[in-house]
Each structure stands twice: as structure tokens, then as C-alpha cells.
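Throughout our pipeline, every protein is held as a single compact record rather than as scattered files. The remainder of this section carries one protein's record, kept here as part of the documentation.

===
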Amino acid sequence: METFDLGIAWDNEIDNEFVNDLNDYALKGGIRPYLIHIYNFYASLKDITENKISFRFLLNRTSDDDPVFRGLPDFLKRKGITFINHPDKAKESRDKFKMHLKFNSHDISVPKTALLNPEDDRKSLELKIKYVSKPFVLRPADGYGEEAILDAQSLDDVIKLKEQHGDIKYIAQEKILHKSLENKPAWFRVFYCCGKVIPCWWHPKTHVYDILTMKQVYALGLYDMWYTARKISQVCKLNFFSTEVVIKDDEKFLVASLNDQPYMRRKSKFNDGVPDEIVDKVIQNIVSFIREKVK
């Protein structure tokens, strides 16, 4: 059997550059990577099944929505392969309401959130909306949250989203009134990668990232983000994720989201991309983590 240090599985072309850069950096660092994509998926599956190849670690960047790759994480899990993000923990992290409950129980502050069940009657829904207050954010309870109404005003918005996505679970979440710092929203995207914390500015409307300097961290009193990110990692048991950390107008830190597959397109090529030096740090951290584990 041929054993590779790091398997990388991905199904979305927006990850092509990140995967190729990770692959190149791993090779330069003496780590043996193996790429699994649509072009070699079935050949790789055959070789894994026949115990011709295996991986010490697997970085999974595939989606449950992809009919080809959907079963890959569970298949590799049964093969005893170690994941950078275990698929069971990754799946759990996409249940927004469950993670909010977990964070609350571990004293991690989150926005007021209510779970809207398919069986809820109109009165129940109205009471839950009243609890989070209007306007509110409305999105499916499971997944990455791309389909959301960011300025929902009433039960009509719930009905509108249900018409689009069906009778699934949704969450209604308080709309965060954030503080401003240095003429920017006090809203941050914090990356946690294999023990390292990398925060940056993130604009909630434009989704534009900017470098957060250490000088700004100390001048603005933002060092709690390191503690928060590490505490989140202990709760969610993921080695690689991003989270939104927001400072409310009452100075309170809130954790607004969790993503087990952080966006990794480069800012040098996409306006809403992650600063190149942060992408490079993530790649370096992953390779350093693998190198340490396979010594």
C-alpha cells in the first residue's frame, strides 16, 4: 500500500488555486499530498477500496450537496483515515441552532436566536420572532447560510423563505447592532487553523476582507478574539474553521457564525477574497501541522 501524508478532496472550482498552492507548498516541505477531484475520483475510490493507497490525514473540501462526493467522507472514515476536520464534527457544526446552544452552554456569547420548526403554528412563530426582535436575520438552520434574508421584518419573510426552500428548519436571529472602529464595522472574520488564530476585518455587507494588524489589535483591545477562537475550537472539535466575531454597540463580543470550510479565494484576484498573506498562513499552518504529526 502507498500511503500519502495528506489527501485533499475538493469538488468546487473556486478551490482550485487554494488546493494547488497547498499541494505545491506541501511538496516543497517534504509532505506527500494526493489530490482527489472529479477527474480522478472513481480511480482513487477504486485504489482506496483495494487498499492500494491511503492517507495519514485528509482535508475535505467537498459538499454534501454534490451527488458524486457526498459519500466520500463516510467512506474514508470507515477506512480509518484521520481527518483535519472529522466529518461528524463538521456536519454538526453546520447545525446553526445546535452550535448556538453549545456556545451558550460554554459561555461563548451569541446573538439571540430562535429555531423555527416546520410544525410551528402562526402564533408560535410570531412569539419566536418577538423574542429575537425586529428586524431580524432569517436563514435555513443547516448548511452554510448563503440563502438568507438579512433584514427580515415579519412572518411574511418566513413564509417567503419557506416557499423557496420548503418546510425545513430555519433560525431567526437578532440583527446585530455593531460598534464602529476606525470608521469600519467592528466585525471580524477569524480563522482558526491547526492551533493558530488569524483574525481580519470583514465587512458584513460587502464581504470585503482587510488585514488586521497587531498594532490595531492592541490599540483597539481585540486580543479576546484569540481566546474566543480557541474556546470555539474546544467546543466544535474542528482543526480548521472560520467564525464571525462582532463587537456590539454595548461593547459585548458576539460570535455570529461558524464555517467548517472557510472561503479561501485570494484577494489579489477577487474583490471579496481573503488577503493573500492570510491564505499563505493557512497553507503554512496546515503543512506544519501535518509535518509535525508524521515525524
Remarks:
- The CA atoms of residues 4 and 55 lie 5 Å apart.
- Residues 2-83 form a domain with the Rossmann fold fold (CATH 3.40.50).
- The chain is about 35% helix and 25% strand.
- The radius of gyration is 20 Å.
